[in-house]
Write a structure and sequence with these properties.
Length: 342
């Protein structure tokens, strides 16, 4: 019995590399055809435009132009709760301003307080992020953050009731072919027991303090964040709806599609035609997922953005294509119950 198991393991160890190599050779030969299949656009006449919330901010302009130039009623942004949003990304020079709730700061005693900032940089080395820290309008410290999450601390003397705001100023944004400086900030901790998360307690002034480009951090999912970005770029808030799902580490596209299906059941106008904006080789998987989840009664078109829309992406690698092909096969299998038992 043990010998039989060993033989099976040995065979698997021999066969799997051959299959993988064969797939890579096939992808190498047929790369253009496979990429075209995975990332083809097939738009229809629709009254709902669905925007996947994980798309980079550079894709927002495409969504806005599509919405304005065609007769859509709504833009739906989808997204799930994600660890990616536990930290606020500060991608450009600017000011992340925390406004603590007034009931947190009732202490009128003047004494030494420990104030900590939980943060990290996207990368280390020359891409480490420099930031200044202010209490109210006074510069109290400056730090250089590397890619490791850590607490940057200061001692501040005063009464907590006198704190109106605390502010993180990212001031050395930098981008080249090797990488992109980004600062990530999660929360402010005071005296080890007062925690002020960036969500719902902060704003991000991009560029100039008090300027016109202000992001209010009142979101908890990628869908809500995308809605805010689209509205900030000129679309009326009544025309943009965030449809969000819970936290998920796998099968996120399915979770988003299920959340959208539930929302669609409550939509008064009962739309049965939608276009989905997705990106590159992920687009085919998005289309397959939504068609399986929503069924034949809903007509679905796909608008596939080029991979070049992704910051820092120059060219697809064979392994990326192989991974997406395998993901598509996997999704078709796990989506069978939705098609069979509808």
């Amino acid at each position: 019995m043990k010998d039989r198991k060993k033989r099976r393991i040995l065979i698997a160890l021999v066969i799997v590399p051959f299959i993988t190599a064969g797939l890579l050779i096939f992808i190498f030969i047929c790369q253009d055809s496979i990429v075209n299949y995975l990332s083809s656009t097939n738009k229809i006449k629709a009254d709902i435009l669905l925007y996947e919330g994980w798309l980079p901010e550079t894709a927002v302009e495409v969504a806005i132009n599509e919405f304005k130039t065609n007769d859509y009623n709504l833009i739906i942004t989808t997204g799930l709760k994600s660890d990616d949003l536990d930290f606020c990304m500060v991608p450009m020079n600017g000011y992340l301003i925390f406004y603590p709730a007034s009931d947190l700061f009732k202490d009128e005693q003047i004494r030494i307080h420990l104030i900590e900032i939980l943060a990290h940089s996207k990368m280390g080395g020359k891409y480490s992020s420099h930031f200044n820290f202010y209490v109210n309008d006074s510069l109290t410290a400056e730090f250089i953050a590397d890619e490791k999450e850590r607490k940057y601390s200061i001692k501040w003397t005063g009464a907590l009731k006198d704190i109106d705001s605390v502010m993180v100023h990212f001031d050395d944004d930098y981008l080249d072919e090797g990488g992109d400086k980004n600062l990530y900030v999660k929360e402010i901790i005071i005296d080890n027991n007062i925690i002020i998360p960036y969500k719902f307690n902060s704003v991000y002034d991009v560029g100039r303090l008090g300027g016109t480009n202000r992001i209010i951090n009142d979101y908890d999912t990628h869908g809500e964040l995308s809605r805010n970005i689209i509205i900030r770029n000129g679309i009326n808030s009544s025309s943009v709806v965030a449809v969000t799902g819970g936290r998920a580490n796998i099968n996120r596209t399915i979770k988003s599609a299920l959340a959208f299906r539930n929302w669609l059941k409550t939509y008064d106008d009962k739309s049965d035609e939608i276009n989905i904006i997705s990106m590159g080789i992920h687009s085919r998987r998005t289309l397959v997922t939504y068609k399986s989840i929503l069924g034949k009664k809903v007509k679905i078109g796909i608008i596939s953005l080029p991979e070049s829309e992704k910051p820092g992406i120059r060219k697809l690698k064979y392994l990326d294509i192989l991974t997406e092909v395998l993901n598509l096969v996997y999704y078709r299998i796990i989506l069978l119950p939705y098609s069979i038992f509808r």
